[in-house]
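Hi support team,

I'm opening this ticket because the web form for multi-chain structure prediction keeps timing out on my end. I have pasted the exact lines I submitted so you can reproduce it. The total is 1014 residues across two entries, so I didn't expect it to be a heavy job. Is there a limit I'm missing, or should I split the entries? Thanks in advance, R.K.
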Amino acid sequence: MADGRNRHGARPGRGRRVVRRMRALWGHWRRRSRREAELEEEIAAAAAILRQEQEAAGVGAAAAKRNAAIALGGVEQLKERVRQAWAGAWLDALGRDLAYGLRQLRRNPGFTAATILTLALGIGANTAVFSVVDEVWLRPRPVPRPEQVVRVFTSDRSSGGEVARGQSTYLDYETLRRDAKSFSGISFLQMRGALLDSRGGTRLMDVAVVGDNFFDLLAPRAAVGHIFTAAQARSPGALVVMLSYPFWNDQFGASAALPGTNIRLDGQPVNVAGVLPRGFRGSQPLDTPDAWIPMSTWSKLTGERPTAATGWSNPSDLFARLRPGIGLRRANAELAVIAARLARTHPRTNAGRRMTCLPESQVRGDEVAGWSLILLAISALVLVIACANVASLMIARARRRRHEFALRAALGASRVRLLRQLLTEAALLGAAATAAAIALGGWVDAVLPRVLPPIDMGFTTPIDAHLTPRVLGYSLAAGLLSVIVFGVGPAWRGSRLPLAGAIQHDERTGTFRARARSALVAAQVALSLVLAVSAGLLVRSLWNMEAANPGFNAHQNMLVLDFGANFSKPAAYRAFVDAARRRIDAIAGVLGTAVAMRVPFGLSGAGATRNVFPAGATGAAAAHGIPVGVDPVSDNFFAMLGTNLLRGRPIAARDLQTGARVMVINQTMARRFWPHQDAVGKTVRVGAAGGTIYEVIGVAQDSVNADFTEPPEPYFYVPLGLADYGELEMVVKTASDPSTAAPAVRHALLRLDPGLTIVYFTTLRQHVAGAMAGERASAELVTLLGGLGLLLAVVGIYGLTSYVVGGRSREIGVRMAMGATRASVLQLVMAQTLGLTAAGLAAGLAVALPVTGVLRAWLYGVGPHAIPVFTVTAAVLILAACCAAAGPWWRAVSTNPAETLRNE
Amino acid sequence: MANPLLQGTLDVLILNAVSLQPLHGLGVSRRIAQITHGAFEVKPGSLFPALHRLEEAGYLAGEWGESETRRRAKYYRLTRAGRRQLAEEAKQWRTVATAMEHALGAGGAS
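Hello R.K., no limit was hit. The queue was backed up. Here is the completed structure from your submission:
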């Protein structure tokens, strides 16, 4: 055996001792079966020696054996204590605990399956939700130095106040590109649409039109193929596009052969340079553009060429990189200076507008943090409910195993040993459930993206949530936490059983108190109430939205289109639009058309604003005017949409022909600008303090602009002027199902101009549904989770009631033998169940009220206390509890009382 | 003799018992009883764990040999490290014993 000291008599250092110990452990591990055998033999030898001594002293053989055994003492205990002295004892013990635990679980397949399934559902729900949250919020953009990437905003004035994070104009961008020293580079992104020709027909794509230098700036690494550079984008004749990973996956089946080949966009062959990595998103957190096209290519495809004079047709989101060593504060200070200078040199467009930059991660976080945290909290609740179920099962099982534990304790197992054993079994269950959950989570991820919100253009953009190391880590943490939550309590109780009492039958009173399990069930009921109320509120909000009057007839047969065309002169475009309307009107089944810059729930954000100068205004209002939302519309607009005119008349064809300076205002504008007066006939200047005078000819009902939950804003409509003919939206009213008229309408448009870009083409119902898709998806998701939580709670109630009623079976048997009716027994059972449920509901109410307060920001039209929702969910839970109690009650009253008493 | 306070005592006694010649388990307990004039009787339940513990620590080395009953038995012998440990602990014990002697004698609890 090693001495521990070297030749020079010095003690080895700590490291050497550790190594020696590890090698000893390894040696012991390998030799452990031999070690057991040797111990056996050693003890047998000792016993033999004792026996022989006894016999030599003249005692009989049997007595000698007995005396020797007594002298030796308990052999198993002895062995156990020797094992503890061995190196690696804990490892041995762990191995034995695991083996024992596995055996126990295998012997109770029902319990094992129920537990693993319950836990897997809870952990799986959390994994799925977290993978979405990770994808949408936590994961940084897959580019080098993502912390340097910032978003640059130009503030905007709207009638509701200042919009701090507004989009920027061509002028803003060019100025920053030239003058901003804090950035190592800056680029832009605009969301547009394009038609993809594929074998399956044409498909509308969400396209991000970006600066040529966009990918040079951000520098992601292509998943397949390569990223196009600014030089490549600008080379004459080149048409390039980058595809997003989810789009490449869905549309092209992740074909590795695609990069380098061409696809047909808007009728032209465009080269696919490569595919972007997963998680490379656009400027919105919940939206991944299908494709990314540099402005050079877009110009060649559509003829749109931004210049200093014309600017961009749409405002853009700006992306920039901070120069190394430049902080946010310094960059913002520089932006303030540049913005002030622009306000001086270009007062018409930039007066009063500021520029700011913020880290991209912060911008993303601000938009999704609230929603994400709520979803995580809800899924965590589901897990807690599941753990409560499992804890309950484990307590019941520990009770059944009390004889086994008592025996082991008698054989010398310490309390710590039993505790360790029970915790090991809990850990085994947790590990199996986590593995199942990760597999289940992967499956749910395939389903979940179809449920989650599509973006405002109405296309369903899948959220590419998948298993990353962080998601895996979260899963494991959830599994570990659940083991602690459901394992420690029951293990503690299970190991505490007093020896003598456990071996005897302890049902003296004939009732199972089951206090801990009752508490668990009450907790489950409470949490289920919180979940169910959350789901109920979201569903109610959704109903309110669908039933609300959006200010136009949202349920009629109508098509909504958005198109832009290559016309160099607005006059040519106007001629085109008029011709298109004539042709479409002529199609059988079409009742009429109207055109506007924007329709409600429109596609281009909140739309345009113009400065309005009411008479008698003072101060800033007099100098700069009040920005009010405006929509240039054609004749027929109000009639087509079904927006009621409350006073005066709508915009007519002659107004467009004569270019009349008239406007129709909405109720809110009338109330705000001309309170208690008739607004018809009043005039305002529009555009500038000395600008054109417009006359109010009518007042229309308020209609929803972009979102149901926004407060009503002033808004006005003017006749479409020549300058307004850019990208327009058209509505086509049909006599019957609009999808039947759709091909004819599209055909008519393309016949008229084959180069037309139809950006959007859908029915009104789908258009409105798309606007509410976010709310619908949230309601669906939370309802799903709520349903799961409710199911688990009901299972918990059922299990507990079974157990308790089973424990009272003797009492029930006696009662029935003495003439009690089934109804009175039912009363007995129900009293207990309902008492428990009521306690749970009370606790749940206390928790649910603050939760309601938090959810309020997402709700529409739900009253301050949401009493109906609470009442309905409480009723559902009570009903569920009653149903859960019904089964055990039926079993109890159906058994022959004599038989029950006999079994007892 | 399972008292942890006396565990150190047991270790020293075991090392001392095998210092002259290797002994097997029961032999150690008998020797201890012998040399302490019957004051300490070590039950197998305490002895065997202690023997294995000392073996793990490297103070004893186990060898299989033939016992007086012609059976295989495990004999424990003192290693060099064990011998050094024994000397050190014996010295400590003597110091403590002397001090206690003085203390109790001076306090009148003779």
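A quick check on our side: The two ends of chain A are 62 Å apart (CA to CA). Let us know if the file doesn't open in your viewer.
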